[in-house]
Design brief:
Blueprint lengths: L1 H6 L3 H12 L4 E6 L2 E5 H11 L4 E3 L7 E7 L3 H10 L4 E6 L12 E7 L18 E6 L4 E7 L4 E7 L1 H11 L3 E5 L3 H8 L5 E4 L6 H12 L13 H16 L12 E2 L7 E2 L1 H6 L13 H5 L5 H12 L5 H16 L1 H12 L4 H9 L5 H22 L4 H9 L4 H10 L20 H28 L5 E5 L3 E7 L11 E5 L3 E5 L1 H32 L3 H27 L5 E3 L4 E6 L4 H4 L9 E5 L6 E5 L6 H17 L7 E5 L3 E6 L11 H13 L6 E6 L7 H17 L5 E5 L15 E10 L4 E9 L7 H7 L4 H17 L5 H7 L12 H11 L8 H17 L1
Parallel strand pairs: 1-5, 7-10, 9-12, 10-11, 13-23, 18-22, 21-25, 21-26, 23-24, 24-25
Antiparallel strand pairs: 1-2, 2-4, 3-4, 5-6, 7-8, 8-9, 14-15, 15-17, 16-17, 19-20, 19-22, 26-27
Helix pairs in contact: 7-8, 11-20, 12-13, 12-20, 13-15, 13-20, 14-20, 15-16, 15-17, 18-19, 25-26
Length: about 850
């Protein structure tokens, strides 16, 4: 039966099936004449994604199969849609000219475009990298590497699960390569939101990776890149190079370097912090992120680098201060700033132009764009060299003027070069004598045809006679029917139309041969010269890449300066101490969202390791507690990115880790409750504290019952206070019982977000003031939200009753009475006596946070039995 079916396959479908068998997991775009066709399941998927018609080939026959296609010149319209839908797309082109071949045309896959390996402008976003990642799991560590083939950036690192998770959040790869058997391992650690592709185990071997990398970079070792000790990371890099060769990306000389992502050089932020602070993405569709507000970059390279600086804030004071110095110079000398801004606007995406050059996909017009960009760099180089600032001078010194490259582009490529090489007139005059001669024949031949038209019109007395051309029989003379009796006998009739006749002459045929022969030869010479020119220009990849990196840095720094000028940001003072002193700090995003004329209420925050380590912030919901927490983190983050900050003044020692635990977020899909997620995130914070950490805890303990919540929040605050590392902490809570902690813990201070209470409502003043808050105004908030009046009245009655019965003692009194942390019971019950004994015998000094949670769980079970 199979043989019978095989016999019925057409030669074209045989060829298709052979090629498809090599790329079973890709959508195969099969070039047939002027169309890219897809067959079978590929056709069904393609038609659905692109919204094109699904038809059938060989309808009703045994070889019937689904078919969907689109014109080949529409590839750049349709390809991005397929890739964005997560498909791997194999582009199968005709490798021979159909005119010169008898029988079936030879075809082959010329490129495999995947979500992580794309160079097409339509697939990419200009201000975002498109990373392909590779993960290698070993027993202790995970190696990770990232490559953006469209810019040539290649990065690697290795670390524990938490660190790799953070990098995946930062770099947001479009596609991740892992070993086939590691899918469960990956999904348990990092979830199911990533686009995975599975490779064979043998690819993830250190020897293979070292050999691949050394062959590519033409080096004897990887020491020069500073990654030779990252064995897991190197294996990840090797897998990426393997994948490039498998996807037909063999022209990769624009990948000139591997950078180490050095964990110890950057501020640590876990994935919860990155998500909570909404740095460059948000789960809310219309939310404005920090990046949206601070990005004043003018070039695609600058936009991508700013994102990287935001993901990896610095810890080294000197490096941060160097960025401040440039920003300060720009603010003080705004003429210089405007000069740089005007020049940067003229610079195109150099990194992506280079990747197109390396992969031989650069079109003639893009060389003109490249030259104009390099021309715009020259004045920048001159201005930077004459600047007062040392960092600017270094940028000026390192910028390469690329004189020979610019000169060669000017000489070789026509200034009005077309987008496509096939359109002709790409190579400038004076480069190739034969080309110039053929062009002369071509243009004079066309002029001669015009002369024939004029002469024959005069000789025959046919005023409307015209000479034209078509692909079927070349040049012809068209005569309208009203004049056909005047046509000479020597003309040969070729075609009859409704209202005209078409003729050819011996003279026309001779000139046609000459002209068409010249044009064909012109196209061939131009293609050869262009290919040689692209190869010659490729030697400039590294210097132009360096220019791109320096312009990106300059762009980010001018962006900082413009941001500071537009929004009255100030330069932070970095000190060698453990103080964080913010005067009138503002939230950079919220202040931009306020209606016109509504001022942002600025707040002071002071934290240190000696006197005010933990600030306990109470206040009603909606009063602005969370905004104060977030703005503190964002000010620190901006400061360590090298940016000025939204405040009147900031003094600070360098922060090495920022932890946030904000609000309750369910992870039901992973089978975890709100409370469990909250405890996991908090445990991660408590296990990683340092004396330079900034911890922001918002409403800890909400996911469980009130007394549980108070107990846990209290224990966490106490743990941070007693921890030898003394991490600076802002602790926002609605548990007013925690206000009692300041009496027993010297470095805990109470603050509240003030409100003005009127007879029927409450006015949020959003000002942080010393002292605890007496109650939460929850009923007022419910009233503002439109809760029915019956509910409000009932709630007020219940509240009055509760307040009148619970004023007997403070929380601290209750805790001190039995010298027990959790004495919220009347101890006249045998089970409660057991609990008391259980608690008394806990050695708090050796108890880890996780053990404490487990112990609490046991106690909870005992209470439930009761």
């Amino acid at each position: 039966m199979a043989k019978e079916k095989a016999k019925k396959e057409t030669p074209l479908m045989q060829q298709y099936n052979q090629i498809k068998s090599k790329y079973p997991d890709a959508c195969l775009l099969f070039r047939v004449g002027d169309f890219y066709e897809t067959f079978g399941d590929d056709a069904v998927r393609t038609a659905k994604i692109l919204g094109i018609t699904l038809t059938k080939r060989g309808a009703g026959s045994d070889s019937e199969t689904e078919l969907a296609g689109f014109p080949y010149h529409s590839l750049n319209v349709y390809l991005p849609k397929l890739v964005r839908a997560g498909l791997r797309v194999a582009i199968c082109d005709q490798l021979e000219d159909p005119k010169s071949v008898k029988g079936i045309v030879k075809r082959g896959v010329t490129e495999l475009v995947t979500p992580g390996v794309a160079i097409n402008d339509e697939v990419l976003q200009s201000k975002s990298n498109n990373f392909l990642a590779s993960l290698h799991f070993s027993k202790k560590l995970i190696g990770i590497s990232f490559l953006d083939i469209s810019t040539g950036e290649f990065l690697t690192s290795q670390g524990n699960e938490e660190y790799i998770d953070k990098l995946l959040q930062n770099f947001k790869p479009s596609e991740i390569l892992i070993q086939k058997g590691n899918k469960p391992l990956f999904e348990n650690a990092f979830g199911k939101d990533f686009n995975l592709f599975f490779l064979e185990d043998w690819i993830f071997k250190e020897d293979y990776a070292n050999e691949s990398l050394q062959n590519h970079f033409k080096t004897n070792s990887l020491k020069g890149f500073g990654i030779d000790d990252l064995s897991e990371g190197i294996i990840g890099c090797g897998a990426i190079l393997y994948y490039l060769s498998e996807t037909q990306h063999n022209r990769i000389q624009h990948i000139t370097n591997i950078q180490r992502i050095s964990e110890e050089s950057y501020v640590w932020m876990d994935r919860f912090t990155i998500r909570n602070l909404e740095l460059y993405a948000s789960s809310n569709e219309n939310a404005v992120t920090l990046l949206d507000v601070i990005d004043k970059t003018l070039s695609p390279m600058g936009g991508r680098l700013l994102k990287r600086w935001l993901a990896l804030p610095l810890k080294e004071r000197d490096a941060i201060n160097k960025r401040y110095d440039v920003v300060e110079e720009f603010i003080q000398n705004q003429e210089e700033l405007q000069f740089f801004q005007q020049q940067i606007k003229r610079i195109s995406d150099l990194e992506r132009l280079l990747s197109k050059m390396a992969t031989n996909k650069i079109v003639p017009r893009e060389f003109i764009i490249l030259k104009e960009s390099l021309d715009a760099i020259l004045p920048i180089k001159g201005k930077a060299l004459s600047a007062k600032n040392e960092a600017l001078k270094i940028i000026g010194d390192n910028l390469n003027s690329c004189d020979l490259l610019r000169e060669k582009i000017t000489q070789t490529i026509n200034e009005d070069a077309p987008v496509a090489l096939a359109k002709g007139n790409v190579i400038a005059a004076g480069i190739n004598a034969e080309l110039d001669e053929l062009r002369s024949i071509s243009t004079s031949g066309k002029r001669y045809l015009e002369e024939i038209e004029a002469r024959e019109s005069e000789n025959t007395g046919i005023p409307s006679l015209k000479v034209a051309f078509n692909n079927v029989f070349g040049y012809y003379i068209e005569v309208r029917n009203t004049h056909k009796d005047k046509v000479p006998e020597s003309w040969i009739r070729k075609q009859t139309l409704v209202s005209a006749e078409r003729y050819i002459t011996q003279e026309l045929k001779e000139y046609e041969t000459k002209i068409l022969g010249a044009e064909e030869r012109i196209a061939k010479i131009e293609a050869e010269l262009y290919e040689k020119f692209v190869a010659w220009c490729s030697q400039y990849i590294q210097p132009v890449q360096l220019n791109a990196q320096l312009i990106a840095q300059l762009d980010c720094l001018q962006s900082y300066a413009q941001l500071a000028i537009d929004n009255q940001y100030v330069r932070p003072e970095l000190e060698d101490n453990f103080v964080l002193d913010i005067k009138n700090g503002r939230h950079p995003v919220i202040e931009k969202q306020l209606p016109v004329g509504v001022p942002y209420i600025a707040n002071d925050v002071y934290l240190d390791n000696e006197t005010q380590q933990i600030i306990m912030i109470t206040g009603p919901n909606m009063s602005g507690k969370s905004a104060i927490l977030r703005q503190t983190a964002l000010i620190v983050l901006l400061a360590q990115m090298g940016s000025f900050v939204p405040a009147d003044a900031v003094r600070m020692g360098v922060i090495d880790k920022i932890f946030t635990r904000v609000g309750a977020s369910d992870n039901i899909s992973m089978g975890e409750s709100t409370f469990m997620v909250e405890m996991n995130e908090t445990a991660s914070i408590l296990n990683n504290l340092t004396n330079r950490s900034l911890v922001l805890l918002d409403e800890i303990g909400r996911g469980t019952s009130t007394y549980d919540g108070i107990s846990i929040a209290w224990a966490i605050a106490e743990y941070i206070h007693e921890h030898p590392q003394k991490a600076k902490t802002l602790f926002a809570t609605h548990y007013h019982e925690l206000n009692d902690m300041y009496q027993n813990f010297a470095r805990i201070k109470n603050y509240n977000v003030s409100v003005k209470e009127t007879k029927d409502s409450v006015l949020f003043l959003r000002k942080l003031v010393p002292g605890g808050s007496a109650h939460s105004f929850g009923i007022h908030v419910a009233k503002m939200a439109g809760m029915p009046q019956m509910v409000i009245n009932k709630a007020q009655k219940v509240l009055k009753k509760l307040e009148s019965t619970s004023k007997a003692e403070t929380t601290q009194d209750a805790l001190n009475k039995e010298d027990v942390q959790l004495s919220f019971f009347q101890l006249d019950d045998p089970i409660l006596e057991d609990i008391r004994e259980e608690i008394l015998h806990i050695d708090i000094n050796t108890l880890t946070p996780v053990e404490a949670l487990m112990k609490l769980n046991e106690i909870q079970k005992m209470v439930r039995k009761k």
